[in-house]
Design brief:
The complex is a heterodimer. Chain A is an all-alpha fold. In chain A, 74% of the residues lie in helices and 0% in strands. Chain A has seven helices and no strands. The longest helix of chain A has 25 residues, at 99-123. Classes of the chains: A mainly alpha, B alpha+beta.
């Protein structure tokens, strides 16, 4: 049990450090990569049950909120919602573990992520509902960068698992 | 079409409650100690990743022009550092020489005046009178013609042959203008007059053929000159030749001082 908790803590810290410390400092295009989202997409395929995933991303959200400029609770709410969404899609539509499945799942999750972000920020007053087009402006870059990353990670994971 | 949520309702409610609790605890500041602890633990790790990302970002965003500008700046700085380094090396060498002088002066009972070599005589003058140095001391410092000049080890390098108010010309031992009354440290205590020869060597004149001179004998100042005290080391005999038709022996000395790396010299003042 302690081994499990420790490994979860390590994963949380690493993911937070990479996304918030490393990726956010990169120049435009590279700083649109979303490691949290990629982890959410690949987690179901590592046979991690939903409850553990929810807990993992809840505490990851907590850590991210501490370093985030958004309101406290932004990542805390966003990440578990994305986990639920990804789980729903995997269980009902994407049982096959092909690259195409991952890319399609990735595409949908990027859309969901952007929508949820906009919604949360609008509800809590950080942005206006009318500024949805701002999110659309960077949507193409989000899509390209993250789908590329999904492809790379897919091949890496496939090689490791062989 | 039925869809599976694949999520236990009880677990989901439990999760929502935990989420709510965390939010309430945060906004009531009850979670502050745990948040601070988390920040303290994670910050150093994030810092490491941040620096890596920053460096990578700088490398990715630098243009060719940026690298060229940086290269120019580094080149200029390198040039400046090379000059500074050379100055420091000179200062270090002078420091060593001065320390050696201090060691020499400690043993020597004569008065002395340190001087910097500021120039060597130009080619045409050298052709006539041999090599000479210009030092930055002159009559205003109490110098006059005939005073011996030594290096940091106390070995004679030459003699003052002309003086101005602020500078003096020193002829080197190998110069034809440079003559010393010498004495050899041999069994006969041979006396003679040293004179520079072709800017290369020193010959001793007026040495009788009866004098026993061995190669390796040291030559010192004899003290017979009013301006040159006795006992100053001049050279070593490297040739002693007796010819039947000559009155005198042909004796040559090799100078013991190195004339090439002179920067500071000492002028010996009589007591």
């Amino acid at each position: 049990m302690w081994k499990r908790i420790l490994s979860l803590v390590v994963i949380i810290v690493l993911l937070a450090a990479i996304q918030l410390g490393f990726i956010n400092t990169l120049p435009f295009f590279w700083n649109r990569l979303n490691i949290f989202l990629i982890a959410i997409i690949f987690a179901p395929f590592f046979k991690v049950d939903v409850s553990t995933r929810l807990l993992l991303f809840l505490f990851l959200g907590l850590a991210a909120d501490l370093f985030s400029f958004y309101f406290f609770g932004y990542y805390l709410m966003l990440l578990p919602l994305l986990v639920i969404c990804a789980n729903f899609l995997v269980v009902n539509f994407f049982s096959v573990k092909s690259l195409f499945s991952f890319l399609t799942l990735g595409l949908i999750m990027i859309v969901v992520n952007n929508l949820l972000s906009w919604l949360l920020l609008s509800i809590f007053g950080l942005t206006k509902f009318a500024s949805f087009y701002l999110f659309l402006q960077e949507f193409g870059v989000d899509l390209l960068g993250n789908l590329l990353l999904i492809t790379v990670i897919y091949f890496l994971v496939s090689k490791i698992r062989r | 079409m039925k869809f599976k949520l694949a999520l236990d309702l009880k677990k989901f409610i439990r999760f929502v409650l935990i989420l709510g609790l965390i939010l309430i605890l945060h906004y009531t500041n009850a979670l502050r100690p745990l948040e601070n602890l988390t920040l303290r633990l994670i910050s150093p790790i994030i810092k490491v990743f941040y620096h890596s990302g920053d460096n990578l970002s700088a490398a990715l965003t630098k243009t060719k022009q940026d690298y060229q500008n940086e290269a120019e700046i580094l080149r200029a700085e390198n040039g400046k550092l090379l000059v500074e380094n050379a100055d420091l090396k000179v200062a270090a060498t002078e420091n060593i020489k001065l320390r050696e002088f201090l060691g020499f002066f400690g043993k020597d009972q004569h008065q002395h005046l340190l001087a910097n070599i500021i120039a060597r005589e130009n080619f045409l003058e050298s052709a006539r009178s041999g090599q000479s140095l210009i030092i930055d001391r002159g009559s205003s410092n109490g110098l006059y013609i005939g005073l011996p000049v030594t290096n940091e080890e106390g070995v004679v390098v030459g003699k003052i042959i002309s003086v101005t108010d602020r500078t003096s010309a020193v002829c080197l031992l190998t110069s034809s203008a440079c003559k010393f009354a010498v004495s050899l440290l041999n069994s006969d205590h041979t006396f003679g007059v040293s004179e520079g020869d072709l800017g290369l060597t020193i010959k001793i004149n007026f040495v009788s053929q009866s004098e026993k001179i061995i190669i390796g004998d040291l030559a010192i100042s004899s003290g017979m000159e009013a301006t040159v005290p006795a006992g100053l080391l001049i050279g070593r005999v490297n040739r002693a030749e007796i010819k039947d038709n000559d009155i005198w022996q042909n004796v040559n000395l090799e100078p013991l001082a190195d004339f090439n790396n002179l920067r500071i010299v000492s002028v010996i003042l009589p007591n």
